[in-house]
Amino acid sequence: SPNDLKEMFFVDDAYEAEMGGFRGFFGLNYYRTYLGPKSPDDSYTRTVHVHEGEFDNLSAIAQQIRRGTDDFVALGLGGGSAQPLDRLVNYGVSRVRIVPDDDAGGIDFTKNCLERTRTKLISFQVFAWPDQYKTWTDPANPSRRVKDADEAIKTLGYPKWARVVNDPDAYASMHEWCFDRVVQDVRRSAVN
Fold first, then answer.
1. Each residue of 151-169: pLDDT tens digit?
2. Cβ distance 177 to 129 under 8 Å?
């Protein structure tokens, strides 16, 4: 009935407006002791891992808290609304490892991270999902797959995930990743 109609409205976020539309990085507060607030020389770590979704980095943070280890800095960016990463320079970060979901959305997420970041002070590496995750199947549910960090941690365990995500060989440089995307696009267009 007409009386049951619901209205939706958005409330402006004063913090976001004050920050010029910047919404922050999920998990930054947890890792604050590893990041230098004044200059790159104050930083304990130069590398951060950015994940597409908040649950992807929250799963890593939860395991790190349970185990009493901080194996890597895992920040969440909010998928398609990923923020520019330029501000990470202020925390002493010089390398960002992008850990996208293993799907089309992950490709878009990676493109957004690269396109929205303007600083030349950060180098990028893009995670290449290993076969052990890409080919994993659940015998009880053959259609179930591992497509993101949260599922990887829940399915194959955090220790294995921490080893894989910290392995430099699990990443492509930014230019290699971009070249591979172009090759895939050309191949697709040649078939069509």
1. 999 999 999 999 999 999 9
2. no
